[in-house]
Model the fold of this input.
Amino acid sequence: MPELPEVERARKLIDTTLRGYRISAVETWDDPIVYTGGITHAEFAEEIKGRTITGCTRKGKM
Done:
């Protein structure tokens, strides 16, 4: 499990590097732990394709 400073550094890097970019392609795998609540990995991929990244946040170490 990464420590909090490492997670925050990664978040800041993603935020400054990718902010404003448009998602042009998405590759996902079926994972019942990640995709809950009635959405499939394919539906998730289709939903975010074409969106613009507006920032990166975290919750705890996630």
Observations:
- DSSP finds two helices and no strands in the chain.
